[in-house]
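Sample A.
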Amino acid sequence: MIPENDVVSFTERIRHSIEKLEPSFFEITVAMAFDWFASEKIDIAVIEVGLGGRLDSTNIITPEVSVITNISYDHMDLLGNTLQKIAFEKAGIIKPGIPVVVGEEQAEIKNVFLQSAAENDSPIYFASQKR
């Protein structure tokens, strides 16, 4: 947990940017977390995407591995009204050359992930196939 004095210090340091850019609370906390990780010289961090993937504020990192859990009809107002559209947004975390693990193989959207992985030359694994 980030100490309270570090939260206050970070907020004061970026107050002008907050007022100018009007980021969401989530975006501010992501920036604060990344700033704190850097100042503490954190070697490994598990970063969960907030919503979607492609346009998420956490998507600025280059991970060691990307993980996409199951895809369902969630956040349809932002991600799309079909599983294919939602999967496309979630696949936005796939980075060039970085392995990706998809939690559940779903026949109707498997190709969305395979195509994105191929375009990024990223190894892809479906956890539901591994025993």
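Sample B.
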Amino acid sequence: MSSKKQQTTRILINALSARQGGGQTYLINLLERFPADLLAEVYVLAPESLALPPNGSSIKRISVEWPVENPFGRAVWEKLHLAKLASRLGADVLFCPGGIVGTCPPLGCKSVTMFRNMIPFNSTVRRKYRPGYMKFRNFLLRKSLLESMAHADLVIFLSDYARGVIEREVRGQLRNAVTIPHGVAPVFRDKARTNPAASYVNQWPGGYFLYASTLDYYKAQLQVVQAYALLKQKRPTPEKLVLAGPEYPAYGRLVREEIGKLALENDVVITGALSHSAMPAMYRNAVLNIFASECENCPNILIEALASGRPVFSSSYPPMPEFAGEAAVYFDPKSPRDLAEKLAAVLADQARMKDLAEKAQKQSQHYDWDISAHKTWRLIHQLAQS
């Protein structure tokens, strides 16, 4: 065995952009599953809000004395200092899970990035935003993401659908690519997890349909509310419609206006952002879960809903069928009538409801953080040693 293969691999993770939500969830699950037998040291550039696991001396936090909360300030710091830091640490790999590498790694340091954000590559969704910050941000992201992926030594995709989109954009000229979907935490499969949502569940004795996601143009909450109104015309509907998640303010106003127009103020509940710990019980106590997004890369909410073992109604847009397979009822998220008709048909068939619930839980077994993390760490280590 060569001396190179005996050396400790040094991995620098730039997690400065992981300030909340899915970015932090991914890193927490990845770092908690750092293989004990992997001959590697991991340095994590991370905000204080990102909790690092107590993995002894293998994982170390590096703080930045610079205003990196703002994405533009962060981009400047990365341009000026990230490569120098990687060189000073003797990093073999620079891993940028946020998608943008932001620098030219020093000689001998491989770069790994991950494609997470599909919106800049979906022209239909981009047109939904009015001119302003979001439109400009998506324009810049598209350019930066493509440049990072084209030059990276390894690109990790979360779905084959996303991989196909980018490979067409760069005409297949990626150096190395792999698809590793995210996993789902065991707590979402735990049938005993009911308490965190009790304060909500007790308010709705007639049950509820849950759509957990950020209120945003491409998430189609407006159409889901309209579908719910049509459903109420078809059958007695004691169940509330619960929209759980933070919101893009302009779109949140549109949804509330529609609720008022349809006189559904007593039937549709907008909870705002809920803690991640409350979500397993929210999914599991729902009569059914809805996911109506028009644009996703790896739909974490969909696979969490599947794991809860409740019937799932999903957008038919890719990559949702790639993840849910035959375990969901698919509908056109732009058609409230399509969703209303399918809800009415399935709710009237308890055998179908039971079958969907069982298929959902079984399908979720394909998504496991232990498997995702193991593949990721091994690939990064092999890249450093190659």
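B remarks: The longest helix spans residues 71-89. Residues 36 and 56 are 10 Å apart (CA to CA).
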